Amino acid sequence: MNKNRHIADRIKAAKARRRLKAEDYVKGILAGDRVMLGRAITLIESTRSEDRVKANEVVEKCLPKAGNSFRLGITGVPGVGKSTFIESLGLKLIDQGHKVAVLAVDPTSGVTGGSILGDKTRMEKLSTRDEAFIRPSPAGDSLGGVARHTREVITLCEAAGYDRILVETVGVGQSETAVHSMTDFFLLLLLPGGGDELQGIKRGIVEMADMIAINKSDLHLDAAKQAKRSYRNAVHLFPPKRSGWTVPTVLCSGIKGEGLDTILKHTAEYVSTTEESGYFRTHRQGQALHWFEETIEMGLSRLFREHPKVSQLLEDLKKDVQEGKRTPFSAADELLQAFS
Ligand code: GDP
User: Fold this and answer.
1) What ranges do the domains of the chain cover?
2) Ligand 1 pocket: which of 84, 86, 119, 125 to mutate (most atoms <8 Å of CB)?
């Protein structure tokens, strides 16, 4: 019974969505209507091709009103305290007069059906605030899909007046690169004690960080200070950042709200120095181009694999390559010829 009602509700919502025009969504978003923002995000996440066309129109129309925000990427292994930290930071930002959107990139949700980031009841206090908009990670089938949706959602949130965008991800792999390429500043949360290998953090991720915060320093102050020292030394050995920014290492406690002012002071300093140098703008321009190219590549790759001749030939050619009957290059050339 309940299930039937659930399905009926979904059909009703889908019909309502179809009746809405792109302008209706845009009008609602620009007026800061959270329900409309939520519906537009559902439209973005839809796989129906007519929804896709409408979603593109909504995002393009919001674009001129977007961009006026600080986009903060936050990563760290599960349990490091991300949601606790984001809740404290979000409430602080709201106290300072900001509107905060919290988004997540969790490619595991589509693969496992569960999610590292989304399952728990998270950010209870922040989620009750009108000035906060929290959206869990879209359930996409690939990191590329999830990341693209999140990037579009950032545009919508900015157009709806959210001027602090927090994008959370887990510190275990590829998703950091995606979040790094859609945010202005990348914050890595670490635990006191244990090197990054012990914490399951890859060196590349440490190098990507614009700031390293040793969280839960309320629990183990000495270990946290020690970790801070060793990361400060490690950071000096990395190649200098193109932004010219020197990566600060700080202590914090999300649960006690300690160290947050220092973190915000550093991010403000980052914005003012990189705006002055022009890096802030060129970095965003580079990111936009990156997503442009990435989307073309994703689209081309899909078109290629769905092409009737290509899909017909693909498996045989793969076998020939595996068995050494064909070189990878001539087999690939043949497929590309079949596509053109
Ligand atoms: P996430 O998986 O990274 O989002 O981590 P959570 O925010 O869910 O926190 C994991 C656990 O660590 C929870 O039991 C929190 O209460 C606890 N925790 C989070 N931040 C802190 C902190 O700053 N200090 C202490 N002592 N515990 C914390």
Assistant:
1) 2-63, 67-273, 287-339
2) 84
